[in-house]
Amino acid sequence: MSNYFNTLSLSQKLEQLSKCRFMQQAEFEDGVNALIGKKITIVGCGAQGLNQGLNMRDSGLDISYALRQAAIDQKRQSFKNASENGFTVGTYEDLIPNSDLVLNLTPDKQHAAVVKAIMPHMKKGATLSYSHGFNIVEEGQKIREDITVIMVAPKCPGSEVREEYKRGFGVPTLIAVHPENDPENKGWEQAKAYAVATGGHKAGVLESSFVAEVKSDLMGEQTILCGVLQTASILLFDKMIAQGADSEYASNLIQYGWERTTEALKHGGITNMMDRLDNASKIKAHQLSEELKVILKPLFEKHMDDIMSGHFSQTMMEDWANDDVNLLKWRAETENTAFEKSTASTEKIEDQEYFDHGVAMVAFIKSGVELAFETMVASGIVEESAYYESLHELPLIANTVARKKLFEMNRIISDTAEYGCYLFDHACKPLVSSFVDGLDGAVIGSAFAKAEYKTDNLELIAVNKAIRNHPIEKVGAVLRDSMIAMKTI
Ligand SMILES: NC(=O)C1=CN([C@@H]2O[C@H](COP(=O)(O)OP(=O)(O)OC[C@H]3O[C@@H](n4cnc5c(N)ncnc54)[C@H](OP(=O)(O)O)[C@@H]3O)[C@@H](O)[C@H]2O)C=CC1
Ligand SMILES: CC[C@](O)(C(C)=O)C(=O)O
Ligand SMILES: [Mg+2]
Ligand SMILES: [Mg+2]
């Protein structure tokens, strides 16, 4: 097997990378009909497997779980997840031969082995689905010609796929049919019905390609979604401690601050998040964000280049072959950071205080979201997709940090995302540590704006204009207009 993307001609690469069409609600009028009465088997019952399955069953579909014999015998967490939620659980031999649709929701690292193990059991003409195109695009997996191959990729951690569904909303989702595997021309109707069953159509669905999904997904998760949150959490916590802040207060501000501040993003974009600040703080956050963008642009571009060339996936696959030595070492190191070991105060911090005392956090968010968006778009990824992979998904990742700090974020996201997050963090820390050390202490942990501060009207007008005119604000306004079922946390 070799990297599928790298076998394409330049024009094919560009065509697949730019495949992106925002779908209209009318296209989902058939609801889940294309999958009603079909036997659907999910392989793996982890972050995506369990939560997608719960949503799909609530949407009226017939869901079972195929697990490895050892997972059943040892009553592993995957077995408990499925059986304690009342699903039928069986081996590949028990369930796959009768399945019309098989969802491969095991970690990307396992996909080649899982495909090899399930393929002899799949009936002629069945469908195989993925929630991330890594196996097809980066590993060049070939699938039997009679099998239809689709992708339904929620742009969000598995836990939030369920939480948003229960709130009556959903998460933006990219769907695609693999051009090399659609023998009966049924993949599209099935992918649409699957997106409805998980609730994705309420948030927005893009007709995409495996290639566009993989390249944008890897970029979002490595940079703004996980990498920036990891680096900024660790450095800003250390900064507050060095300034003599109370450790429990600092811990609370970081752990819950990402969730509180990015909630404003989700509803009204960067403009709304910045409008939550007083004028002096807004101008300061904007200035810091511009400085951060200059420092971080080369790093964002390096990640995009390494993702496009296949260098990133090659190095990660080398770690897979080496028993995940690097991943496990980096995971352990994260558990030992001062932020991770700190305990957050239980005292209630008012919503507004997270903004007022978190000007530097807002600056990191703004710079990271804009840079991720700009870098993806410059590489041929369409704006709508870049918006979902940066701005819309960030609050959903921040929700996981609020639950149990970086440990929880890295536990919930895929191993692929976690590996890329550490790579980014290791390169980012040395780049921004002197910037953070040199920050005016008032931008984190206390109110920045002082009574004597005088706001320059012209400066404020220029800052507001720059914020509102960024292209992510334009596409975001259009996409959010269709998110009529969005709920507040
Ligand atoms: N994590 C997330 O939120 C997101 C993930 N995705 C994508 O979804 C897919 C699933 O990822 P995720 O939910 O994180 O995965 P998890 O790590 O949560 O999945 C673990 C599950 O896979 C099973 N499994 C592991 N190895 C094998 C194997 N060799 N054969 C059979 N089953 C195996 C485990 O069972 P056992 O008990 O036997 O070990 C367990 O049920 C990936 O493609 C990922 O990129 C997409 C969007 C977000
Ligand atoms: C956070 C990255 C992600 O792609 C996701 C949740 O969407 C993953 O791989 O976990
Ligand atoms: Mg993703
Ligand atoms: Mg991912």
A few lines on this structure:
With 489 residues, the chain is an alpha/beta fold. Helices cover 60% and strands 8% of the residues. The protein has a nine-stranded mixed beta sheet, with helices on both faces.
Write the layout of secondary structure elements.
Layout: H1 10-17, E1 21-22, E2 39-43, H2 47-58, E3 62-66, H3 69-73, H4 77-84, E4 88-90, H5 92-95, E5 101-104, H6 111-118, E6 127-130, H7 134-137, E7 148-154, H8 158-166, E8 173-177, H9 187-198, E9 205-207, H10 210-242, H11 247-275, H12 279-309, H13 311-321, H14 325-335, H15 338-341, H16 351-356, H17 359-378, H18 383-392, H19 394-412, H20 415-437, H21 457-469, H22 471-481
Parallel strand pairs: 2-3, 2-5, 3-4, 5-6, 6-7, 8-9
Antiparallel strand pairs: 1-9, 7-8
Helix pairs in contact: 2-8, 10-11, 10-12, 10-17, 10-18, 10-19, 10-20, 11-17, 11-19, 11-22, 12-17, 12-20, 12-21, 14-20, 17-18, 18-22
The structure holds NADPH dihydro-nicotinamide-adenine-dinucleotide phosphate (NDP), ligand LWWEY6Y5 and magnesium ion (2 copies).
One magnesium ion is lined by residues 132, 217, 221, 414, 416-417.
